[in-house]
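Quick one: DNA repair protein from Lates calcarifer, C-alpha cells please.
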Amino acid sequence: MNWNQLELNPRIAATARRALKSVREVLCVSGPDLQRLTGLSRSDVQQLLAAAAAACRRHPPVPALLLHGGQCRRFESGLRLSVGCPILDRLLRGGLPVGGVTELAGESGAGKTQLALQLCLSVQYPQQHGGLDSGAVYICTEDSFPIRRLQQLIREQSSLRLDVPPSLINRLQFSDHVYIEHAADLDSLQVCLSQRVPLLLARGLVRLLVVDSVAALFRSEFLTDDWLERNKQLLTLSSTLHHLSQEFTTPVLCINQVTHTHLPPSSGLSPALGLAWANQVMVRLMMQRLQGTITRGNQSSSLRRLEVVFAPHLARDGQDAAVWREGVRGTEVSEHITELLL
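--- reply ---
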C-alpha cells in the first residue's frame, strides 16, 4: 500500500508523508501518537486513519496463515471447535476454525473470559460432540486465572451440554486438562510460547491455546516513542502464534481489549493494537454488553452480543447471548421477548 492509494486531502497526505516512512506506519500508531508525530489536528488525524483503513479494506493483505497451502487445506477441511452452544455455533458455522488465530475483543465484563473458559472445556470432548479430544493451555497476562468460575462451569456441564451423554461428562476429568500459565511481560510470554506450549502440543496434551489478553503487555511495556519496537514485537508474537497453529493444527484464541474511536462506522469501540494486529488474525469477533437484562428462573444476566467482524468463511452477523451459571448461551426468541418487556 502506498500514499497514492489514500483518498485524502493533499495537505494531510503531504504532512503525514514527511513524518512517516510509509502508509503501513499509520496502521501501527494510535490517534494521539499520530497527532504528536505529525503535528496534525485531531480532525486531520481522524481523516488520515479513516483513509488508511479504507485503503486497507480495498487492498487487504492476505493473512500470513492463508499463505501456506497446507494450512489452507486444513482450514477448508471444515474441522471446528464448538463453543458448546448450538445457537452460537450456528453463527460461527460450527465454532472456531482449527488451524487459525481467532481474536475475541470487547470491554471488561463483556463475557470474553467466560467464553474462553467454556472453550477450554469444549475442546476436551470427542470430535462427534464438537471437541478435539484434548486439553487447553490458558496464558494469563494480566489477571489471575478464574479458577472458581472454571470449577463452576465444570459442575454445570450437564446443564450446558444437553447433547452429550451424562455418562461421558462424568468420565471426563476436565480440571486435569486445563494447563494454566502466567506471563508478566513479553519476554516471559515468548518463553512460554517457544518452550512450554510446544511441549504440551507435541505430547498431545492440549489442542487449544488461549492468550488472555494479547493487548495487556503491549500497553504496559511501550512508551509513545517506542512504536517501531512495539510493532516489531507484535509481528514476532503473531508469527509465533501462527507457527504453533499451523504445526499442531490447533485453534488459537487471543482475547483483546478495546479502545474508544470516533471513526465511522464504528459504534465507538475498536479492538486494541490497531490495523497492524488486525491484519494478523484470520477471524475477528467482538463481544459487547448491552443494556437489556434477561431473567430465566432464579437467574438473571445482562444481555450480550457476539459479532462477527470479519472472517474468510463467515458473513458479518451477530447473535445475542447471556451468561448463565452453566456458561455462555445464545438467546432464544422467548428470551428476546422477556428482555424487551423489562
